[in-house]
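Exam review. A common question shows you a sequence with its structure tokens and asks you to describe the fold in words. Practice with the pair below. Do the first one on your own.
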Amino acid sequence: MELIKAHKRMVAVALALIVLLCGFTYIHYAGLTRSTENAYINANVVNVAAQVSGRVTAVYVVENQHVHKGDPLFDIDPEPFEIALSRAKADLALARESARQDSAEVSVARAQVAQMESDLANAQDTYARDKELVAKNFLSQQSLDDARTRQQSLQAALEQARAKLTKALATPQQPDERGDMLKAEAEIGQAELDLQHTLVTAAQDGQISNLTLAAGSLVSVGEPLFALIAENSFYIDANFKETELPGIHPGQDVDISIDMYPGQHFKGKVESISGGTGTAFSLLPAQNATGNWVKIAQRVPVRIKLAPTDTSHPLRIGATATVTVQLK
């Protein structure tokens, strides 16, 4: 009988020690980790949009297709932009022709000034000679008056020619100084860029999602058409209670369990901690200045960067997870 009692005491002591050990282990482990089930998978999403407006002529991708950077996604009818490019090139040709005409006008004006200067010099010599002959009575006064009139007429013509030359020289002669040529060249550059934008390509590697675009659709500039989920950009938004934040900081290792893959564990690191609670940035923030206010611990988003996963475990935006941050 005594032996049985002693055995029971030993069992009770052993159970008590086990409970104490488990409690100590739990308390110790809990002090080294922070865990939450309020966590959701997210990723960098590129909203694919057109940079020019027009009619879609071809779509090269399908829903959930994986694409690489530079792969064609869809085409926009290029004909209006080809016409715009031809018009811009025609404007440049006209500007160049105008520049050539202006240059020719300068040459003609210079030649006229030179001719007028030569004629005026001859008229001045004639007038001086006639003046001497009149003084010697070898020539009539009328001839001297005619010589004076011709000299004055040529002087006026020279002033007009010089004014015409000044006006011609006021127009820039260098292509990089002419406003009409600069404008035409800029229009060509814009037209070429718009034409390039009629072929829309993938900005990076990733998966097509939410695709409803079809050939024949009319698209506008900047209008989101479908999504491209960037490859290897997945992260987790873990919403910890504000009382659980002490001890959590960027760079800590994180153990992740994703509900869609039971029994599988993934690795990650704390990337950043939000500057506000989730409710602070909601569409309708909580109004706490009310008479029936109840204090509730708020949750703060903690972003966790996921390590790249293998192809057998593809991730999905919005999937739920459980994260455990190692505080060491």
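Now try the second one, then compare your answer with the model answer below.
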Amino acid sequence: MTGVVRTGGTERGRALVIGLGETGVAVVRTLAGEGWHVTVVEDAPSGTPRYAERAHEVRVLGAELVETPGGARARELAAGVDLVVPSPLVRPAHPAIAAAEALGIAVRSEIDLAAERTTAPIVAVTGTNGKTTVTTMVAAMLDASGVPAIAAGNIGRPLIDAVADATVAVESAVIVAEVSSFQLAFAREAFRPRVAVLLAITPDHLDWHGSFDDYVAAKARVAARQAGDDLLVFDADDARAAAIAARAPARRVGVSARAEADGCFRVIGDDLVFPDGRPLAPVAVMVRALAHDRTNALAAAAAALDVGARLDGTVAALGAYATMPHRVALVGEASGVRWYDDSKATNPDATRSAVSSFDSVVLLAGGRNKGLDLSVLAAEAPRMRAVVAFGEAAPEIAAAFARSGTRVERVAGMHEAVGAARRLARRGDAVLLSPACASFDAYPGYAARGDDFVREVHQQVMEEATSR
């Protein structure tokens, strides 16, 4: 690097931050505080939440803000710095990233910068589905054991801010971070979690990564820099996670839904058990214990116990853990039909997992496809009473079930979808919003989509049921 000053083990020079979301501001706050000269590029100011507030903050911090620079200007800016930090979702083909990589300038994610700025143990959780649940479970198990835990990363608070919290306020804390494939793709130099949790890897975000192989390679970075005294907890039932684990440098332990999976955390009969078969906790202690709930609980326990959680604290946390919003969350029951919000299911594997928990389902699916193969949903057709397809991907959802004999109705939006599901469902059915697609064709995020579903269910189903 040129123009870089090393002080106290940290290199300082000129940095380019791409994106002025919450992560971008956190990076500016850290780098500017260390004496870096920081420039921020924001390609879409009008589409960035709280943009004016964030623009004011980074300017007060001394950063230069360049709005909608265009390709040539972005490449020029990258050529004049020592470090480029892309925010999550900034694509690898961004002109500034491409220019920096061509010139040999470091391109590093926020989680990579955070990792080199702390000595606190980090538990990093990734995979395609279940990341947020496992992250919050680990934090709850540690807290219940008297170990201070800070949940951060893709779950909400930027990891680089959590690192500052752990350093200044809670020196004994464990940082539990949900990390996405977008963040891991640029975690190239320093990201080494004390415990890495690698859940099942199935196709997702192919529109961003370009190929499934690149997506898997990004996920594999969670364990790439671990050493022999670190731990990798992995889904032993998933071929890709198991393959990554087989070549990982750290200690390894699997979690499995198979009772016969010796050497793994698993379920035998009515108990969650340790790898050697000793009971960990009764399944009955869990508030909800669907198949994926059990796997998530085992992964969380394996990670938490390795960084200081006690067995009694782990069991207590399992007994108190409430279902995360928009993840197969029961909205209500009327006329013998249960209504569930699983809006967080933004890929086909998540939807298939949710559907497999029920015997008879009216599925609400659709939204914006992320370049994924939706035809795999047809494997769950025997459980489907009907499918209600909505959003941009409605034609693809309908095509997925075309040869299955499953009834499919296409509708315009959520109001019509709930109305159709109410008409199609029969006593004993589960009506399940589990879209298999992103929400951005009609909503700012999956939570807004789920909230809209809940409103419609209450207005169209629950209120009428109580008025009879």
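Model answer, second protein: The chain has 17 helices and 22 strands. The radius of gyration is 23 Å. Full marks require stating both points clearly.
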